[in-house]
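quick one
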Amino acid sequence: MKKRILSGMRPTGKLHLGHLVGALDNWIKLQDEYECFFMVADWHALMGEYEKPQILPEFIIDNVADWLSAGIDPEKAVLFIQSQVPEHLELQMIFSCLTPLGWLERCPTYKEQLREVKTRDLHTYGFLGYPVLQAADILLYKAGKVPVGEDQLPHLELTREIARRFNSLYNHEVFSDPGAILTKTPRLLGLDGRKMSKSYDNTINLSDSEDIIKKKISNMITDPERIKLVDPGHPSVCNVFAYYAVFFPEMKDELHKACADAGLGCVECKKRLASCLIELLKPIQKKRHDFLKDKQMILKILEDGKARASAVASATIREVKAAMKLSL
Ligand code: TRP
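structure w/ tryptophan:
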């Protein structure tokens, strides 16, 4: 039997290249080897976006269109929306009863977000419980592996702690410890050299037009010490070179040499990168265009995913209640 995987993404904006190399490419590879559940984490999104929840429906459809266009195959993987499977909240509630406050208050991602996020007030009861809901997501499907970025490791650790606490309190091995699958791709930085993130406005979105991609790339900062064309460049400190290394490793050596020998200027180098990225995204965007023309088909896929996810989720809840001797 195939091992099971669960992963999720919050529908809070358009997907960008960081999602492609940081998550989607990985998900696509895992589809054959594992039984995959890929979830739109709309409740998690709501925890941050509760002041403007109306943005969520559009991004749910938009993000799923990108998943499908990038190569997530609904014949292989189960694609579903978290809020359409109510058992997530049921298990979250149960877990919230047995999760000590200190575990949540100490969580590094929680502390960091409270410190960093200035545009929204995250001092809420719901946001403190973010990792409890994530534990419920993972354990509801008894996922053995969870593909995530490094930033999510504290949540996975909490998931294991909650699983162990549940098992020991009710004296049943209902849950086993899920492990992480970390993406091997080096972290892709944003256009300005910071982490690629919608909130920094430094992304290249999977749906960006040719003109926008050209414009965004042309504004990228290259080696600051290379002022004139004849100055030799230092690819190791150049973010444009880093993009080549991630997306077009086959061109890496040649470009490295051309830059260090001052044979290729930054303007030309960026033009080339833009046209390569445009070519890379073309097939995805073509499919995206077709999927978005047929929203009913996306909804049908999610409806089907909901049924398949619900079958697993309801069986787990039954088991949980039996272990807790809650069944009447
Ligand atoms: N917290 C994850 C993120 O922001 C999204 C998420 C929600 C998730 N539930 C999950 C990821 C379960 C993996 C498993 O990226």
